[in-house]
Amino acid sequence: MKNRxxxxxxxxxxxLAVYQLRDFSSRNAFSTSPEGSASSFLTQKKxxxxxPAKNQDPRQKDSSSPNLLQSFETExxxxxxxxxxxxxxxxxxxxxxxxxxxxxxxELKSKALDPNQYGDDRMLAIYxxxxxxxxxxxxxxxxxxxxxxxxxxxxNSNSAFEIITRAQAIEGLQNREDKQxxxxxxxxxxxxxxxxxxxxRAQRALSHHHHATPRVEDQDLEALEKFVR
Length: 229
Fold this sequence. Notes:
Elements: H1 2-31, H2 66-78, H3 86-98, H4 102-113, H5 119-131, H6 135-146, H7 159-174, H8 179-192, H9 196-211, H10 216-228
Helix pairs in contact: 1-7, 1-10, 2-5, 4-5, 4-6, 5-7, 6-7, 6-8, 7-9, 8-9
C-alpha cells in the first residue's frame, strides 16, 4: 500500500512537470508585453480595483516589501538554470532566509498560498520558509500544509500543483534543524490532514524521525528510479 502511495505521488510530480512547462510558457508570453516586463513590476503602481489584465504578471499586485520582492525576482529568475555550485546557492538562500522577520515570513506564506502567483514564486516561498529557523516559520508551514483548496483554484494553478505545494511544506517541516519542533508539527498534521496523499506523506515524514526511515523525498526518488527501469 505504501508503494502505491509513493507511486501515486510520483504521478503527481509528473503532472507538476507538465504544469511547470505551461507556467514557463506563461512567463514567456508575459515577458513579450512591454508594459508587463518582469524587470519593471516593482516600480509600477499597485493595481486599483479593476481586475488584472490577462497577461499581467500576478506579482504586480503583490503587497510584499520591495526588498523581499527584489530578492524573489532575482532568485526566481535563476530557477531552471544550470547551477554549478548548488551548495553555495543553498547557503546563500539559507542566509537570506535567516534575515527575514516575522512580517516577511507571513508574506511568504501568503505568496505560497496564492493560486494566481507563478508556480516558481510559490515553491521558492515555501522553500525559504523551510530554510528559516524563525520560531514562527514552522507554524506557517503547518498552515500551508493544512490549507484547503478547490479544484478550480486559479489562473496559474491546478489541484495537482496545490497538493505539491502542501507536500513541500511537509518536507520543510521534516527537514527542520529543530527535530523536536519537526516531530511536534508533523504529529499535528497527521491528526488533522484529510487528503490521503498528504496524510501519507506526513506519516512517512514522521516515521523518518521515529524510526529512522529515509526522508520522503528520498523515498520518492527511489520509487521513481524503480518505476523508470
